[in-house]
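quick one before i forget lol
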Amino acid sequence: MKIVIHVDELGKIREARHNIENLLLSEPEAKIVLLMNGEAIQGYLLPRVIKFMKEYSNISYQACHHSMRNFHVRSKQLAESVEVIDSGVIRLVELQEQGYSYIKC
């Protein structure tokens, strides 16, 4: 099972975390990508999100470069586990073309 969880609102990060935890309870081998863009990009700087990323190191974390620029988030501020991608929207399309199911939080 391959799933991309998309978050573009800062207030939806908690919902995304809960969705990931619930998915992994049912499907522990699921391949999950958490992709943040828009204002949610700032979430990668929050202590609770950093803690979550350490606890769930088997998840792929992706950050939109365009959103980082718009919200003044620099690559060096992000955890090593976060992959910076050029465009969140393009990556969402690419992942769906690769068979990932799309979940919007």
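fyi The CA atoms of residues 20 and 32 lie 8 Å apart.
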